[in-house]
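User: Can you recover a sequence for this backbone? Please restate the input before giving your answer.

Assistant: Of course. Working from this structure:
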């Protein structure tokens, strides 16, 4: 019997779902020694060697969750997830580890880093601040007052500057610094805070004076009231601490409320002299996020966010996804490809992301992809997928070794092209840090979002091995509900190239979502066992298809 088959069934042995009769049949003809080994040390067997391509392996050590999938014959992909500034779910890093490595924490943290992404969970930009995910209201200030002598008894008290503006002491950071935020001047839920401090002193009602030497912005955190965080094997079974588990997919389900900072200030004022929680149950929430992170065995993470406006707010924008740049490290090349874009020049640099852009250097200033910038092809179908590549040079040739896609659904939710184009004036910003900030919705939709408004966004992050389909720039797929969405992009002409999909998709119906005129899909109606056939003319073409 092949070891691949044994690996598949040993998972069921460990989980206790394999009957005695099936067990006997499975191991008929297998040596007694191997039989004893598998039964006596199933965790060791699971931890050693690479998983087959259809299996995801997951383990949790404390707050750190490691999600492992096959990447290439030599390497497995390990995505590390933990908790962020507001104790919310947060991506940490992505590594390539040796395919033979085990599942201990030490082995899962030694390898080639391809992505450092400690701030990839996505905040809202509302009421002139970023808030939620790793962020808090930026209207708060940390005020340096050398040897201030403030104590818990001073929390929640109001201090007046030399122009008569009042500020509430929310937190004593240390012996020289305190956090202040004024009461909101707004008459509704859309908070507005005075950020101007006049003079160099603050005085309380009792006449005590504090002399400050420095005032800096600080984000008011924690800003999220965590309601639930679940780690579920195949979306059902809770992940057991420290036990490696194999599954078809893995869900992290999270729900949290973003707290209205004006509610925090008022609560402190109403309870002076107390150490109050910034996320207490009675505080007003402005937005509720319900997020399901679903990890698949082919390097895909599908992120389904359902958000509800608990109060009205003014929207700047929301992306639901964002991503740091890939980590170049030992790689020679770092490239960026964005379909549906046009060449443009900014800061004396010529850019062409559709043709694949050298991305080793950071942009000198933020690159915004929007109609006004004349760098998008179709205002009614905004760029929605963004690909980065790491590679090496082989003479004049670039050999791509790592691919990474970030994008929105074209078939579900608020990012279907017509809906997104109607509610987003921009498609994307590449910041001067080289970080990627897509836009799902901004103030084009409405300046003020009423309480009760609901948002439904499906997005994805996906790592892939470009060499697996050498003729294509990108060839990847992931599930969205019961559908599978397939992407294929080419930067050269091909004649009847074969794109083979997993066996479970064979026979399923094919529907073209979008494609360039230069690409011909010769396969019709359903996915054949031997693969779909495509041809591309004019050295460029792409298609997106739905398999259902």
């Amino acid at each position: 019997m092949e070891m691949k088959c044994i690996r598949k069934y040993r998972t069921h042995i460990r989980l206790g779902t394999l009957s005695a009769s099936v067990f006997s049949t499975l191991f008929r003809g297998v040596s007694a020694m191997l039989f004893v080994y598998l039964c006596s040390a199933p965790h060791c067997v699971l931890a050693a060697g690479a998983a087959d391509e259809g299996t995801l392996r997951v383990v949790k050590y404390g707050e750190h969750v490691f999600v492992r999938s096959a990447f290439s014959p030599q390497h497995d992909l390990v995505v590390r997830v933990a908790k962020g500034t507001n104790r919310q779910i947060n991506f940490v890093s992505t590594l390539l580890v040796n395919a033979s490595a085990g599942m201990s924490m030490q082995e899962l943290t030694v390898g080639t880093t391809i992505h450092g992404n400690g701030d990839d969970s996505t905040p809202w930009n509302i009421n002139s601040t970023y808030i939620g995910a790793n962020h808090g209201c930026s209207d708060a200030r940390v005020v340096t007052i050398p040897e201030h002598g403030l104590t818990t008894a001073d929390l929640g008290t109001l201090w007046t500057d030399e122009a008569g503006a009042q500020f509430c002491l929310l937190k004593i950071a240390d012996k020289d610094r305190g956090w202040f935020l004024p009461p909101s001047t707004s008459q509704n839920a859309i908070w507005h805070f005075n950020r101007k401090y006049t003079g160099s002193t603050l005085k309380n009602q009792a006449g005590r004076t504090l002399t400050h030497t420095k005032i800096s912005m600080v984000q008011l955190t924690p800003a999220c009231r965590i309601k639930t965080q679940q780690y579920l094997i195949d979306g059902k079974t809770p992940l057991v601490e420290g036990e490696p588990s194999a599954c078809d997919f893995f869900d992290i389900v999270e729900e949290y409320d973003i707290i209205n900072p004006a509610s925090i200030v008022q609560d402190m004022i109403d309870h002076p002299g107390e150490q109050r929680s910034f996320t207490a149950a009675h505080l007003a929430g402005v937005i509720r996020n319900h997020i399901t992170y679903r990890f698949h065995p082919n390097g895909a993470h599908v992120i389904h966010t359902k958000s509800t406006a608990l109060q009205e707010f003014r929207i700047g924008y929301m992306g639901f996804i964002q991503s740091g740049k890939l980590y170049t490290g030992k790689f020679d090349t770092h490239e960026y490809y964005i379909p549906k874009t046009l060449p443009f020049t900014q800061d004396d640099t010529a850019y062409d992301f559709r043709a694949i852009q050298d991305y080793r250097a950071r942009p000198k200033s933020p690159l915004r992809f929007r109609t006004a910038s004349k760098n998008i092809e179709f205002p009614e179908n905004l760029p929605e997928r963004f690909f980065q590549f790491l590679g090496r040079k082989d003479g004049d040739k670039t050999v791509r070794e790592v691919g990474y896609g970030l994008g929105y659904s074209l078939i579900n939710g608020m990012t279907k092209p017509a809906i997104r184009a109607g509610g987003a004036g921009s498609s994307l910003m590449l910041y001067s840090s080289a970080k990627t900030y897509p836009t799902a919705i901004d103030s084009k939709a409405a300046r003020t979002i009423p309480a009760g408004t609901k948002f439904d966004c499906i997005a994805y992050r996906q790592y892939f091995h470009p060499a697996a389909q050498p003729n294509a720039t990108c060839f990847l797929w992931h599930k969205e509900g019961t559908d599978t969405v397939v992407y294929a992009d080419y930067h050269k002409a091909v004649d009847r190239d074969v794109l083979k999909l997993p066996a479970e998709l064979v026979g399923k119906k094919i529907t073209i979502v979008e494609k360039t005129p230069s690409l011909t899909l010769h396969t019709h109606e359903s996915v054949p066992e031997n693969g779909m056939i495509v041809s591309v003319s004019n050295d460029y073409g792409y298609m997106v298809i739905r398999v259902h």
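That completes the design. DSSP finds seven helices and 40 strands in the chain.
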